[in-house]
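INFO  loader      accepted 1 record
INFO  loader      residues=316
INFO  predictor   begin
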Amino acid sequence: MDFIKPLGGQNQTSVTEFVLLGFSVDPKKQSLLFAFGLSVYLLTLAGNLAIIILIQIDQCLQTPMYFLLGNLSFIEICYTSTTAPKMLWDLTLGDKTISFVGCALQLYFFVTLGSIECVLLIAMAYDRYAAICHPLHYTLLMSQKICWGLLACSWAIGNFNSMVNTALVFSLDFCYSNEIDHFFCDIPPLLKLSCSDTSVSQMVTFNLSGGIMIVAFGLILLSYIFIVSSVLKMRTAQGRSKAFSICVSHLTVVSIFYGTLMYTYICPSSSHSMEQDRLVAVLYTIITPMLNPLIYSLRNKEVHGAVQRALSKYRG
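INFO  predictor   done
INFO  writer      dumping C-alpha cells
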C-alpha cells in the first residue's frame, strides 16, 4: 500500500497514512507494555463507571458536586478511550498504521475531551468555593440551571479549541515521512513531521490551548485563595479539617493534570525530548484517568457510604 502519494506534477508528496512508532520495537517489552496498558485501561473503565453508577443510584449523591464528578468520570472514560485502544491494538498486532482521517479524528476528540476536562475542573473549584465561602447561598450559586450551563460551556470551549487546532494541523503538508514519533496523534509530533511552515499552528496552540490551560489554572488558584481565606477564619479545628479534606482530592487531580499538560504544550519543545513527551503523555492520558476515581473516593465518606448502601441492597 502506498502511504505517500505525489501531488500532481510537483516534487512534493502527501501522506495518506501515518505510522505510530510508539514506545519500543522489542517484542518482549511490547508484551509487558500491553499487559500494563490493558490493566490500567480496564481499571480506568471500572473505576469511572463505578463512580457514575453510584451517583445515579444513590440519592445522597444527587448534588451539584457529584453531578460534576459524574461528568468528569464520563469524560475520563472517553478521554482515555481515544488513545488506549489504538495503543493496545498496535502492541498486540504490530499494525501501527492509522489513516489520515483516523489520525485527524483521534486528535480532534483528544483535544476536545482534554479541553472539556480543563473547564470542568474550574467548575468543580467553583463548586467548592460556593460550598465553603457562601454556604447559605450554595443552592442558588450551584442551581441545576447553572450546573448544566457550566457543562455546556465546557463542551463549547472544548469543541472550539479542538476544531481550530485540528483544522490548522491537518491543513499542513506532510511530506517524505509518515512516521509519528508517538503512540497517538498529538499536536507536537505532527508539527515536527510537517514540511510546511508551522509557525501559525504553533502560535495558535500556544495562545489558544495554552491560554485555556493558564486561565483555567489561574481561576482554580484564585478560587482556592478565597477558600483558604474562608477556612482560616473558621473557629473550630474540626471545621477547618473537614473543609480542607473536601478540597484535597480536587487539588491533587488539578496538580497532576495541569502539570503534565503545561509541560507538553506550553514549555518549549526544545527543552524536552520526544521520549520524555511520551512518558508524560502516559501520565495524563492513561494514568491520571485511572487515579481520579481512587483520589475522589478514598477519603470521601459520602462515597464510602454510597458503596456500603449499594452492597447492602445487593446482598439483601
